[in-house]
Amino acid sequence: MAETDHDAHDATVETATVAHGDAGHSGSFPPFDPTYFPSQIFWLVIAFGALYVMMSRVALPRIAGVLEERRLRIATDLDKAEELRAESEAAIAAYEAALAEARTKALAIANETRGRITGEIDALKAETDADLKLKLSEAEASIDAMKENALARVRGIASEAMVAIIEQVLGQAVDRETAGRYIDAEFSARR
Amino acid sequence: MSDQDRPGGGPDGDGDRLRELERGLRAARKADEGNKPAADRSGVAVAFRLSTELVAGAIVGALVGYGLDYLLGTSPWLFILCFVFGVAGGFLNVARAGIRSEKRNDGNGR
Amino acid sequence: MSNDPIHQFQIKPIVPLEIGGLDVSLTNSGLYMLGAAAALTVFLTMSMGGRALVPGRVQSVTELIYGFIADMVRSTAGSDGMKFFPLVFTLFVFILFANMVGMFPYAFTFTSHIVITAVMALLVIGIVVFYGFYKHGLHFLGLFVPKGVPWVMLPLLVPIEIFSFLVRPVSLSLRLFANVLAGHITLKVFAGFVATLAAVEAWWGVPAAGLPLLMTVALTALEFLVAFLQAFVFAILTCVYLNDAIHPGH
To answer: Using one digit for the tens of pLDDT, what is the confidence trace for B11-65?
Structure first.
């Protein structure tokens, strides 16, 4: 391309005829020169034919094989990944199901326990209440008895004191029984 | 890759990552199926082939017409007729190329 | 080497050979074709040598070309067209390699010879015709009868359809040939300007050579694009024409 011939002359497309020393050269425009047509066709058929055979028998099947292998490999890899993904999803689902089940179980147990404890507490309370009531009534009874007793003793002391006072003041003997009756009457009126 | 090293880990975080994986897988499969390099359908190529079609039509028409005239002795009528037909045939090839490239640009295959 | 832009297309015999009275000498062109076939076979086979599931850089290139062509065939000619995938693939890599190697200075570009492109185009059209008749019998001729057209129009449209079919091998071979040829000549002419201007014995000679130099650089980039595009166009048109043979109804 980059010729540096110093005696180069302006060459144009029109200067098609060239004087050449090559044998068998007719001097016409080479691409249209029929001298080498048979040779051109002959070698083209050989070269192209050989290339076609090599391509269709060796090169192309080989390339196709590699491409197909890769396509299959990618497809299987994708399938495998998909499978693993589905598996892990299933595992997560199972885990979540188990979690939910455990949660409900725990809730049930808690509820049951609460119910049982509430019952126990109620029973204990009732028992205690009954016990307390019994003790209260017993205490009331003993208080009543003690009150009765004390009153009786107060009446005795009061009637003796009354007899003594009357004897001292009036100098007159008083029957203890009568004094007791007065006291009783007085007590009853006050009560 | 343990869950402890990111906040909000645990099963829900894993679910997100799984969904992400699923999306990625689907995209990869689609890319794999569409893994056929598209031929260059540039208009340049079409434009290049139009140039010669008319010239070739004229040459073929002229040659066929000349040959028929020579054989049948009808000079110059078949030459003229075949020349016209030849150019028209070349033009038809050009028109077809145009239609074909338009169709292809529409993405309708051939 | 002279600065003549045509010189680069010159065919020179290397090993004289004659079969059945025809001169089939191994020429520089034939050598480049064999070299392309050998290099492509080695590259495309060895790059997959590792058969690595995660491809290296070289293997990626091979897989990219493979996927590119496979997608082209499938989208243009349908999955029935995949039986022609090796053909399209071979055509594409062969032309691409030839064009790319041709970008190197002093290299020979065999796609700049109309015989080569014509034989490849005729191979494609030959397969289309052969497979079309083999698969669909005379129904393949229905390709020339456009559907949904009033019958009065048919005497006009059928010849046009026939010519449009006849034009295909010509345009297919002409396009590749003309693009490569024109590109190489233009490049050479501009490179020649650089040399000519730089050789001028005046103060403005070397600076003035900068302009064509820039053009040469830009054209080289463009030619690389053309080298790929022409291989691509040849391959995709092969698919389009094969599609006609597989599904004759438009």
So the answer is: 556 667 777 877 887 787 776 554 443 444 455 555 556 667 888 999 999 999 9
Per-residue tokens: A169: 């003041």
Q: Which domain holds residue A138?
A: 35-190
C-alpha span between B54 and B60 (Å, rounded): 10
Half-sphere exposure of residue C101: CA atoms within 13 angstroms, side-chain side:
22
d(CA C31, CA C54): 36
Model confidence pLDDT, tens digit, residues C35-83: 999 999 999 888 887 666 677 788 888 989 999 999 999 998 988 899 9
Is B36's Cβ below 8 Å from some Cβ in C?
yes
- Predicted local confidence at residue B4, as pLDDT: 46
pLDDT over 70 (residue A191): no
Considering only the beta carbons, identify the residue of A20, A51, A63 that sits closest to C41: A51
Residue B53 sits in the same domain as residue B93: yes
* Residues B29 and B60 both lie in one domain: no
B53 shares a domain with B28: no
What is the C-alpha separation between A30 and C10, in angstroms, rounded?
Answer: 6
Rounded to whole angstroms, how far apart are CA atoms B12 and B73? 93
- Indicate the residue type of A133: K
Q: What is the mean pLDDT of residues C147-174?
A: 90
Answer whether 0.90 is exceeded by the pTM: no
Q: State how many domains chain A has.
A: 1
Domain assignment of residue C2, yes or no: no
Say if B18 is an interface residue toward chain A (CB within 8 Å). yes
pLDDT tens for each residue of A99-136: 999 999 999 999 999 999 999 999 999 999 999 999 99
Is B17 contained in some domain?
Answer: yes
Based on the fold, state whether residues B47 and B101 are members of the same structural domain.
yes
Would an 8 Å CB–CB cutoff place B29 in contact with chain A? Answer: yes
Domain holding B29, by residue range, is: 3-33
Tell me the mean pLDDT in the region C96-112. 92
For A42, A150, A157, the CA distances from A147, given in Å and listed in that order, are 153, 5, 15
Containing C219, the helix (H) or strand (E) segment is helix C205-246
Shortest CA gap C51–chain A (Å): 6
How far apart, in Å, are the Cα atoms of A161 and each of A122, A172, A179, B105, C248? 57, 14, 9, 141, 155
At residue A66 the predicted structure's pLDDT band, cuts being 50, 70 and 90, is confident
